[in-house]
Amino acid sequence: MVAAAVTVVALVCACARLAAADSNALWKIVDLRCVPSQQASGTPGQCTAVDLDKRYVILKDITGRSQYLLIPTDRITGIESPRVLDAQAQDYWADAWASRHYVETSVKRSLPDNRLGLEINSVFRRTQHQLHIHIDCMRGDVSDALARHTHDAPGTWRWDTLNGNRYRVMRITALTQGSDPFRVVARDNKGADAMATQTILVTGAGPSAERDGWLVVNSGTEADNGSGTAEGLLDHACRIADGG
């Protein structure tokens, strides 16, 4: 048991050093470790899960008690890639949402859908050049603030201030096809250069996303008091699970 624990610690430390030094670290973990392991032995290796059919992995992030990442098994740099808007693009947001149970397993309790969030950073606020969607708990104060959008008419942007920055918020009733958050944001951010400045967060519009829908929270570096990241709206300590 001691040897196994030492091995796990060493592996995590090695990953931390790799990520700090190499902007392709996530891609190497996926392409050189997790996918080959799944193909060879049916086990995900360093990853938590590998879905070869849907072409993504789930990886426990080294930061936080409950943060996971959805990472495509295809080489896709990030939010700016035209591949996320292809007609045959994978439903990464829907798959990330379906993977929120890993967060709940980490904190050993079920959480309402408006207390869970997905997030992707702009090109200018990320360290890794492989698309990855963060999956984690929402900050309690941010969830409370977003409650005012629970009954917004679907498909309409409304501006709000969250954590000191301006974001626009849209309620949607699905995460696929025309309501895929990448497509929603890309409608008025045409081209790779415009998308590169954007950040997207998705959370439940209410306790049950199936009933209440989802909120797409979007900002960009070009917006007045905007932001290229919404990661600060997540809580990697998941205090909400402890009543905080």
TrEMBL record:
It is found in: Cell membrane. GO terms for biological process: CDP-diacylglycerol catabolic process; phospholipid biosynthetic process. Pathway: Lipid metabolism; Phospholipid metabolism; CDP-diacylglycerol degradation; phosphatidate from CDP-diacylglycerol: step 1/1. Its EC number is 3.6.1.26. GO terms for molecular function: CDP-diacylglycerol diphosphatase activity. It is a single-pass membrane protein. Residues 1-21 form the signal peptide. GO terms for cellular component: plasma membrane. Gene3D superfamilies: HIT family - CDH-like. InterPro entries: CDP-diacylglyc_Pase, HIT-like_sf. Keywords: Cell membrane, Hydrolase, Lipid biosynthesis, Lipid metabolism, Membrane, Phospholipid biosynthesis, Phospholipid metabolism, Signal, Transmembrane, Transmembrane helix. Coiled coil: none annotated. It is an enzyme of class 3 (hydrolase). It holds the Pfam family CDH. It catalyses: a CDP-1,2-diacyl-sn-glycerol + H2O = a 1,2-diacyl-sn-glycero-3-phosphate + CMP + 2 H(+). Belongs to the Cdh family. This is CDP-diacylglycerol pyrophosphatase. It comes from Paraburkholderia lacunae.
